[in-house]
Every structure is written in structure tokens, then in C-alpha cells.
Amino acid sequence: MNPVYDDFFAGGAGEERTLRGNLAAYDRLRIVPRVLRATGDRDLRTTLFGTDLATPVLVAPTAFHLLAHPGGEVATARGAAAAGTAMVVSMAATQPVERIAGAGGPLWFQLYPQPDLAFTAALVKRAEAAGCRALVVTVDSPVFGRRERDLRNGFTDLPDGLACENMRDDTGRVRNIEMDPALGWDRIGWLRGITGLPVLVKGILHPQDARLAVGHGVDGVIVSNHGGRQLDGAIATIDALPAVVEAVGGRIPVLVDGGIRRGTDVLIALARGAAAVLVGRPVLDALARGGADGVRDHLRTLTADLDHVMALAGAKRPAELTPDLVAVAG
Ligand SMILES: Cc1cc2nc3c(=O)[nH]c(=O)nc-3n(C[C@H](O)[C@H](O)[C@H](O)COP(=O)(O)O)c2cc1C
Ligand SMILES: CCCCC(=O)C(=O)O
To answer: How confident is the model at residue 1 (pLDDT cuts 50, 70, 90)?
Structure first.
């Protein structure tokens, strides 16, 4: 891949402390397995917002898939569908959501609420009409993170011929995605009013924000630091998860992303109370290397790895994974 795009996909904000920290935090955790639990008939199926999935591993929203592979987001969606899981389509996708929906698998739509409310409402309706089953509102981006690799490389725009296709307005012009520093909880209420879709907020790290999310009628929270691309120095997501799960108290599902690379990482996240996890960069790497089949194989391999380590840890179902199975390494 073009090294400039490679840096865009792989990189994070600032010193990339949080990017590294997401991975390092899993490295400090260990599994305390149970034995003699007859784990022969394992079942990883997971239901989220009424959608049945083959696995608790979903595809995180990531921008610009046509930079990774000529099949773009459509190829990613085909891979996710073949693996029996959902893809969260980024608002910064390089293909129209209607075409991505043609892949046939379950989709959720990720939104950066725009200051132009009429445009935002039209985009939500468009995603809904395309068949997206949930809205994922990214709340960790009041301003854009300072990505030093991109600054060094001068990567500021998509190359000619590529565009954020879902940002076209009714004149056919592609709008720039604006990060809105004025965004507040009132906008979440407004979104709940304009859509019947479940609304998740993505980018929660503080338990008090998790409580506020529940209080504002949100349907799910995603514990995320945007893969270390926004606030460098933010807490690792697997470290933030337990307090968020406690604050939510089982009222809505809590999902988590950031640094999930192996079945053991998924196991630990589920044991700490996540209903499911999302994977970002590994899916982009799989897309770049192998298109739709690469994405399918990656998701299947990660799921098979989870299945294997669940057997070794004494669990048949995700629900049997509980916090006592996780210890902090000495
Ligand atoms: C190249 C790239 C683009 C991303 N684009 C978006 C985006 O458009 N919207 C969003 O909410 N998150 C975006 N994210 C963040 C991911 O949804 C997710 O939080 C993060 O990648 C998870 O960490 P991981 O890459 O370690 O799995 C992006 C991440 C990457 C790596
Ligand atoms: C305007 C594109 C935003 C993509 C994004 O969220 C990311 O690169 O992390």
C-alpha cells in the first residue's frame, strides 16, 4: 500500500501513547480459567438490538476503504456478511451506503452529527432507507485529533476521484465532514426524536458519561478512544471498561473497541462485561491484503480463536464469561 495511506490507517494522535496503550493494557491482563465445565457444545451467537450475529466480533467504522482496496466498503461488507456479523459503515465511507447495503449483511451507520441539522437528518433518513439497523454517534471528536504522521506526510484530502459519497447533498456536491465543538447531549435527544433506530454513542470512557448516556435514553454505549486517533493520553479502553459497565448496571449493552487482536482479547473484554467488541485496523489490513475474502477469513479466524480459548477457559457461551476470569498480571 502507498506508505502515506498506510500511515493514515495505522497511525494515531500525538505520541501514539493511547494507540500503544490499548494493546499494552491487554498484555497486562491474564485469564484465570475454569476447568471440568464440559465445554463441548460452544455457541458464540450474539443478539444485538434484535439482530442475530454468528459472533460477538463486529467491524468498527473506519474511513476511506477505497484507499485500502479497489473493492472498498462493499468488499468489507461482503466479508462481514460472509462471517455472519455486522459492519458499522463510517460516515467517511468512499462508497454510497445504498451500494454497501447491497452486500446483504447487517449494517449500522456511524454519524458525526453535523452543525447543519437538516443535512444530518437527511443523512440519517438515507441510512435508515438503505437498511441500516442502528445509528452509532461518534462523540469523541469535538475537534479532529492531531495525527502527526498525516501532518508529516501532508495527507489532508482524498486523492482525485475518491470522495465521501454519503456527504453529497441534494445538489450533488460533496460536503466536508465537520467536527462540531458545540455538540452536546441535547443533540442526542434530537437524534432520538428523528429516528426510530437504536442510537449508540461511541467514544465513552468516563463512567459519569455512561450514566448520562443511559439517562438520555441511549440504546448502547461503545467504550472507545477512537483507536488512539483523537485524545492521545486517553485511558486504554479495556482499563476503562469495568467502571463503565458498573455505571450502566446492565440497563443497555456496552461494547468496546481498541487493540483487540486475538481471541484472548475478545474473551477478556466479554469477561469484563462487554456485550460485543469491534475491530478496526485488523479488518483494514485484511481488506488491503485480500479484499472481501480477506475480511471474511480474518473475522472467521478471530471468532475461531475466541471459540478455542473459551473452551480452554471453561466457557460455552459469551454470557458465561465473568469478571472473575480476569486477573491483573503481577
Ligand atoms: C483508519 C481509521 C479510520 C477510522 N475512521 C473512523 C470513522 O470514520 N468514524 C469513527 O467513529 N471511528 C473511526 N475510527 C475508529 C474506529 O472505529 C475504532 O474506534 C478503532 O479503530 C478501534 O481500534 P483498533 O483499530 O485498535 O481496533 C477509525 C479508525 C481507523 C484506524
Ligand atoms: C473525516 C474522516 C474521519 C475519519 C476518522 O474518524 C478517523 O480517521 O479516525
So the answer is: confident
Q: How far is the CA of 203 from the centre of ligand 2 (A)?
A: 13
Average pLDDT of the chain to the nearest whole number: 98
Q: How far is it, in rounded angstroms, from Cα 304 to Cα 301?
A: 5
Considering the chain, what percentage of its residues have pLDDT values greater than 70? 100
Q: Is 308 annotated as a binding residue?
A: no
The closest residue, in CA terms, to atom 3 on ligand 1 is 62
State the angle between helix axes of 17-27 and 237-248 in degrees (0 to 180), rounded to the nearest 10. Answer: 80
Helices (H), 52-139: 72-82, 97-101, 117-130
Q: Is the pLDDT of residue 164 over 90?
A: yes
What type of residue is 63?
Answer: A
Domain edges within the chain: 3-321
Fold assignment, 3-321? TIM Barrel (3.20.20)
Quick one: CA torsion of 73, 117, 253, 229, rounded to 10 degrees?
60
ipTM of the complex: 0.99
Q: Where in 122-250 does DSSP place strands (E)?
A: 135-138, 199-204, 220-223
Give one DSSP letter per residue of 153-167, joined into a string: HT--SPPTT---GGG
Collapse the DSSP code of 17 into the 3-class scheme (helix H, G, I; strand E, B; otherwise coil) and give the result. Answer: helix
Mutate to test the pocket of ligand 2, among 62, 167, 175, 180 (most ligand atoms within 8 A of CB): 62
Helix or strand run (H / E) with residue 31 = strand 29-31
Active site annotation includes 206: no
CA of 141 to the centre of ligand 2 (A): 9
**Contact (CB, 8 A) for 283 and 60:** yes
Measured distance CA(236)–CA(18) in Å, rounded: 6
Which protein residue's CA is at the shortest distance from atom 20 of ligand 1? 227
Terminal-to-terminal C-alpha distance of the chain: 40
pLDDT value at residue 330: 80
